[in-house]
């Protein structure tokens, strides 16, 4: 029970309103230690309740503190706008019965209204690193009184190139503070290096990723010949699977835009989300997907972290994720809070070894599925190593360009076998 943590009545009232009955494993492990003001490195599976694990002790600390006219007391850094917005909503829900104020600062919005919010002296600032640095440079935000710092999704933040930005922000904070660093993995050298640079030497590690499973999520793979074959498979799934909402992941924004256009051509109502969308566009897409009846969202990995939307019971990896952690976060958009979910990944010959590597990295086994009506020519590698990976084809030495050209198979004409084919211009006969 949450009452075991000796939280204030205002927080317990908010928890009751949210219908939370029992703390999750990560909350049980983190909250008592965070209340002791220890520096912590945290890692837990997606959907584990990690946000509340650091928000509840943060809010409790501010409630117990005598309120005076200080600058920002708590800062939560997030790698993306979507995750920052979600954290802001979570914080507001938990602080609903307190007088603690929080704001969110991200790119894509005007600096002036954000500066006006900062001048109101909120206790908690939730921000993306780039935009916060702009306000720091303009001397619109001050962190010398900061007592509580959270770096959320640190691995993702470093992947996006924010290492120096984070260090510059930390330099503006007072050294006597509590720091919590959250990451999908605590074995990443870059994450450990950042931890050494910004945390106390006795910072405690809490890693629950190895003990937490996601039995409510079925993970399947479907072998595909090429991108056109994937499009036909996707069409079949969207017509035959039962789902309330689905996210279809691509590896790049260009691929996401292209797939969105293909789906629209075939009369699906779909929106596309990626990092190059303007803030207002992204906000509009998320509103449609959250509560306006939109069932299909095509996205790059910008949506793989931080989105906590009810009703996503199907995830389709049109392109296989490049890294195990990215796959984990994609799949984690479904099966939230113990509900059942299905994750389906398309795998071509070029993606086989990537799939096997991620399977071993995450310690999972993908269920292989076949759609008989759309069975392709790729049925798996002919020769496998002991690891399960396919042997690579060896190139002949000293082969001339002419020999290479002769060895290339002739291009086959593209056909449409009952699914998606080449997009052609519609005529009046159509």
UniProtKB/TrEMBL annotation:
A motif (Q motif) lies at residues 1-28. GO terms for cellular component: cytosol. Residues 31-204 form the Helicase ATP-binding domain. Residues 233-377 form the Helicase C-terminal domain. One of its GO terms (molecular function) is hydrolase activity. CDD domains: DEADc, SF2_C_DEAD. SMART domains: DEXDc, HELICc. Belongs to the DEAD box helicase family. This is Superfamily II DNA and RNA helicase. It comes from Gynuella sunshinyii YC6258.
């Amino acid at each position: 029970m949450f009452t075991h943590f000796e939280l204030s009545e205002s927080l317990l009232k908010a928890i009751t309103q949210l219908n939370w009955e029992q703390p999750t494993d990560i909350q049980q492990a983190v909250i008592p230690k965070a209340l002791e003001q220890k520096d912590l490195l945290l890692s837990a599976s997606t959907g584990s309740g990690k946000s509340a694990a650091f928000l509840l002790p943060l809010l409790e600390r501010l409630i117990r503190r005598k309120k005076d006219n200080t600058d920002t007391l708590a800062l939560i850094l997030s790698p993306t706008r979507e995750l920052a917005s979600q954290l802001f909503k979570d914080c507001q829900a938990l602080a609903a019965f307190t007088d603690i104020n929080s704001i969110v600062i991200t790119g894509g919005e005007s600096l002036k209204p954000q500066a006006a919010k900062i001048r109101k002296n909120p206790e908690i600032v939730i921000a993306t690193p780039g935009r916060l640095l702009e306000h720091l440079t303009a001397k619109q935000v001050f962190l010398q009184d900061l007592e509580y710092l959270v770096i959320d999704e640190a691995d993702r933040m470093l992947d996006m190139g924010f290492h120096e930005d984070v260090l510059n922000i930390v330099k503006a904070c007072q050294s006597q503070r509590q720091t919590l660093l959250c990451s999908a993995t605590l074995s990443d050298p870059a994450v450990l290096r950042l931890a050494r640079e910004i945390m106390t030497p006795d910072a405690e590690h809490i890693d629950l990723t190895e003990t937490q499973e996601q039995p409510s999520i079925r993970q399947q793979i479907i072998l595909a010949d090429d991108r056109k074959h994937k499009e036909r498979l996707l069409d079949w799934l969207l017509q035959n699977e039962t789902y309330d909402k689905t996210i279809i992941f691509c590896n790049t924004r260009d691929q996401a835009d292209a797939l969105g256009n293909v789906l629209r051509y075939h009369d699906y109502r779909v929106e596309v989300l990626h990092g190059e969308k303007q803030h207002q566009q992204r906000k509009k897409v998320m509103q449609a997907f959250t509560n306006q009846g939109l069932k299909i969202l095509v996205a790059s990995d910008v949506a793989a972290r931080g989105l906590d939307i009810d009703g996503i019971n199907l995830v389709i990896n049109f392109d296989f994720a490049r890294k195990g952690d990215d796959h984990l976060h994609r799949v984690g958009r479904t099966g939230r809070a113990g509900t059942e979910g299905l994750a389906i990944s398309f795998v071509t010959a070029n993606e086989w070894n990537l799939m096997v590597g991620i399977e071993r990295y995450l310690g999972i086994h993908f269920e292989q599925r076949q759609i008989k009506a759309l069975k392709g020519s790729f049925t798996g590698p002919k020769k496998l190593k002991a690891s399960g990976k396919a042997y690579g084809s060896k190139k002949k030495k000293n082969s001339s360009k002419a020999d290479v050209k002769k060895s290339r198979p002739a291009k086959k004409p593209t056909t449409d076998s009952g699914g998606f084919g080449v997009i052609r211009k519609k005529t009046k006969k159509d």
